[in-house]
Amino acid sequence: MQTMSLNHINPIQWQQILADAVSDPAMLLERLQLPANMLDSMIAAHDSFSLRVPEPYLQRITPGDVNDPLLLQVLPQPQEQLEVKGYVTDPLDERSSNQQQGLIHKYRGRVLLIVSGGCAINCRYCFRRHFPYGDNQLGGAQWQQLLDYLKQDNSIQEVIFSGGDPLATTDQRLASMVSDLEEIPHLKRLRLHTRLPVVIPQRVTPELTQLLQNSRLQTVVVTHINHPQELDDSLIAALKELRNATDQLLNQSVLLKGINDQGEILCQLSEALFDAGVLPYYLHLLDPVAGASHFKISETTAKNLVGQMCDSLPGYLVPKLVKELAGATAKVPIMPILKNNGQSIS
Ligand code: SF4
Fold first, then answer.
1. pTM, full prediction
2. Which atom of ligand 1 is nearest to the CA of 128?
3. CA atoms within 13 A on the CB side of 277
4. Cα-to-centroid distance, 293 and ligand 1 (Å)
5. CA angle, 7 as apex, 253 and 244 as ends, to 5°?
6. Domain 94-341, classified CATH 1.10.10.10, yes or no
7. Which residues are registered as beta bridge partners of 110?
8. Using an 8 Å Cβ cutoff, are 66 and 37 in contact?
9. Which of 117, 134, 172, 335 is deepest in the core (most CB within 10 A)?
10. Mean pLDDT in consecutive groups of 10 residues from the start of the chain, 346 residues
11. What is the distance in A from the centroid of ligand 1 to the CA of 122?
12. How much distance in Å is there from the Cα of 339 to the middle of ligand 1?
């Protein structure tokens, strides 16, 4: 597939694209040539978790197709208002691991920092859609406290920048944070979990790639791509630049009903990721967050889907199927159902 270089792009451009993201449901319908009478069914969900879609992502959605797999990830729907047993606002009980403002420390050896509460896109299935970002802002005083926390615990080897989306913050701020972290001798790795370059490929600026390339910390970037249609030429070019700048470029996806719940689509996604220099890493079962129950796929279906991937792909292209459980000390692996085990995959 043909790719394009991002080097010519003004680094400020991504911030303008971010600011111009579509956040008006009526405008979304008009831009995508969808029936105007869908508007009423979108309003209640939009009021509780607002619509947000940046232009480069919008351009990958097929106009007029109400079932487009990218549209369904961002479209506010009435099912979000249903109260479903077991679906809660904090499905991973992160509040009990939120030891300090902006910090989640639940797994041994690594901590997660809420670098930014903002995202470039609002994914309807997001497990942090109710997260109290307002209580977790990392101002100057909180950052110093957090550095003290990291310095005092030399079992911590890895810092994960998360959010929201950590790349919603400026390269200048990221550089300052990374520089402070590099001074803590026991830290070895910096990991970034981000969807921003996926939805705004222009976010992969020369400043960002240089920061990743020049850090004394090993760097791992984990993107979040759910469907092969998300991988257009501009994203492929951005991923190749990230790949050259990092020690590891991995992807995690969420299994979503009506979006990527077919073995063939998941295989195409793995192939397309690898073509772009990205290794499929995790395939997550949906976290039971309030408002997202309509995306749920049963564990048995998920096992069968990954079994189909095992039958079709080399092992390194099959992501680990996992679920997160509140209170668990790691993600919980789920074994696929294989055809040659004599078990049905229908
Ligand atoms: S980009 Fe990530 S954190 Fe932001 S809404 Fe989507 S899934 Fe949630």
1. 0.93
2. 8
3. 17
4. 16
5. 50
6. no
7. 107, 158
8. no
9. 117
10. 47 88 98 97 96 98 98 97 93 80 90 92 93 79 93 97 93 97 98 98 97 98 98 98 98 98 98 98 95 96 97 97 88 88 48
11. 6
12. 34
